[in-house]
């Protein structure tokens, strides 16, 4: 373990109050953990809530899925921070439900529901694919150098940008009140637009405040205000809590397990990209924790972190929730507090598991109108797209790179906007390429291999 305590060059060190292996007093650790919790609790439950609302999952089952999102995120966070054998990076890393998979799950899941497949059977297929895809990520963790050569930052940036851009539609639907509002003709009415635009405006205003902890908690604060506004307007619905138990006992394979090739192909590709995203996030955490950002110690952390990404997605599928990934926003909290102690992560993990085992927590979150949530997810989805732009800005955009970006975005966004272009393809290919992320991502991968790089 002595190698894990190596530090980068002195000039790169940050002034930390508590270093990686320091043990803060319980009260200080709890306060630091609470700061992280404020930054992550909304992003952890939002993907599951959006998917369940889009597919028409029952309120009781939605409550259970949201609870398990918190529990599984807590387990992953514990493994990342504690480092158990090969599992984990041994850093203060928080892991939660990934936004990357929302588009394909909603798109293909909705098509299955529209074709007459019962919602329970659709969920069984989704969780079967989540489990199968997790083995891709676990395998990637063992061959990272080779995968990094195949899926370059150019491909990763394009895919992440496509994920964000294709999710914007779901964000706008949420701002208008969601799919249910489309059905009952209340979509984008005055109440829904007032609630969603209020939340969006509050997030913008709070990000101009110079108090750092308010900035880091802007989304949560805005949602709390939006929640209160929804209550004042009579739009809170607590029916999901009526039949909820006092304690949510994890139930493996609640929906059973099935499989769908049409969902697996785009999900498999996103698992690959999520693995590479984790490399950047873990490297950033390592740097601000005054730990190595290259060499064997760094590579050991990367492999362990990506392995937990996959192993925890396996656990997520078994316990009826969605794939998880390393969260980047917690690096900002580390810089804010000066606390990089991985033992704080164990407090975060415990808080997440406790909250997840209390269905009332998920019930309160589920009661929020989708329009309120929409104001926040527009910012979150925009941030995903901005992350893709940030990745692309770090590479040399020569004519070859610009051509690959142009074709990949054109195909990916084109298919997302005009899915009728695929209507004469066999059903399997139609379902696979109906995902703009899959179409654009596969195009980027193939073009990156086929088109030779120009010699400098």
UniProtKB/TrEMBL annotation:
Keyword rRNA processing belongs to the record: no
Recorded topology in the membrane: Multi-pass membrane protein
TM stretches of this protein: 27-56, 91-115, 121-138, 150-168, 188-206, 218-238, 258-279, 344-365, 371-389, 401-422, 428-451
Subcellular location: Cell membrane
Domain of life from the UniProt record: Bacteria
PROSITE patterns reported in the protein's UniProt record: XANTH_URACIL_PERMASE (PS01116)
GO molecular function, one term: xanthine transmembrane transporter activity
GO cellular component entries: plasma membrane
Keywords from the named record: Cell membrane, Membrane, Transmembrane, Transmembrane helix, Transport
Primary location recorded for the protein, binned into one broad class: membrane
Family listed: Belongs to the nucleobase:cation symporter-2 (NCS2) (TC 2.A.40) family.
PANTHER family hit by this protein: PURINE PERMEASE C1399.01C-RELATED
Protein name as catalogued: Uracil-xanthine permease family protein
Organism the protein comes from: Acinetobacter sp. A1-4-2
């Amino acid at each position: 373990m002595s190698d894990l305590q190596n530090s980068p060059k002195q000039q790169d060190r940050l002034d930390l109050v508590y270093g990686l292996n320091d043990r803060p007093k319980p009260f200080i650790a709890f306060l630091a953990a609470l700061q992280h919790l404020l930054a992550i609790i909304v992003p952890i439950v939002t993907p599951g809530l959006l998917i369940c609302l889009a597919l028409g999952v029952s309120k009781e089952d939605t409550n259970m899925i949201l609870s398990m999102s918190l529990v599984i995120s807590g387990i992953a966070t514990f493994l990342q921070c504690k480092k158990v054998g090969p599992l984990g990076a041994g850093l203060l890393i928080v892991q939660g439900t990934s936004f990357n998979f929302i588009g394909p799950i909603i798109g293909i899941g909705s098509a299955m529901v529209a074709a007459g497949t019962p919602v329970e059977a659709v969920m069984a297929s989704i969780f079967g694919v989540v489990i199968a895809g997790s083995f891709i990520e676990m395998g990637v963790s063992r061959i990272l150098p080779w995968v990094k050569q195949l899926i370059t930052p150019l491909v990763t940036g394009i895919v992440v940008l496509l994920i964000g851009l294709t999710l914007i539609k779901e964000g706008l639907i949420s701002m208008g009140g969601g799919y249910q509002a489309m059905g009952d003709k209340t979509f984008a009415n005055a109440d829904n637009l007032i609630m969603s635009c209020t939340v969006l405006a509050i997030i913008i205003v709070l990000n101009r405040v110079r108090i750092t902890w308010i900035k880091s908690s802007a989304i949560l604060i805005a949602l709390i205000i939006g929640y209160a506004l929804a209550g004042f307007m009579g739009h809170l619905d607590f029916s999901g809590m009526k039949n909820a138990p006092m304690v949510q006992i994890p139930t493996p394979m609640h929906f059973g397990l099935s499989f769908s090739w049409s969902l697996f192909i785009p999900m498999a590709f996103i698992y690959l990209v999520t693995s590479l995203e984790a490399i950047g996030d873990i490297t950033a955490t390592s740097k601000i924790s005054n730990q190595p950002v290259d060499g064997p110690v760094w590579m050991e952390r990367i492999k362990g972190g990506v392995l937990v990404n996959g192993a925890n997605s396996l656990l997520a599928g078994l316990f009826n929730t969605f794939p998880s990934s390393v969260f980047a926003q917690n690096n900002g909290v580390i810089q804010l507090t000066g606390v990089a102690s991985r033992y704080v992560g164990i407090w975060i993990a415990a808080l997440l598991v406790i909250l997840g085992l209390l269905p009332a927590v998920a019930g309160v979150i589920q009661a929020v109108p989708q329009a309120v949530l929409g104001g926040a997810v527009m910012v979150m989805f925009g941030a995903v797209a901005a992350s893709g732009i940030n990745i692309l800005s770090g590479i040399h955009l020569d004519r070859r790179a610009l051509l690959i970006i142009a074709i990949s975005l054109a195909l990916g966004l084109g298919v997302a906007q005009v899915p009728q272009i695929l209507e004469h393809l066999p059903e399997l290919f139609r379902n696979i390429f109906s995902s703009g992320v899959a179409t654009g991502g596969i195009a980027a991968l193939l073009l990156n291999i086929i088109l030779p790089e120009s010699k400098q």
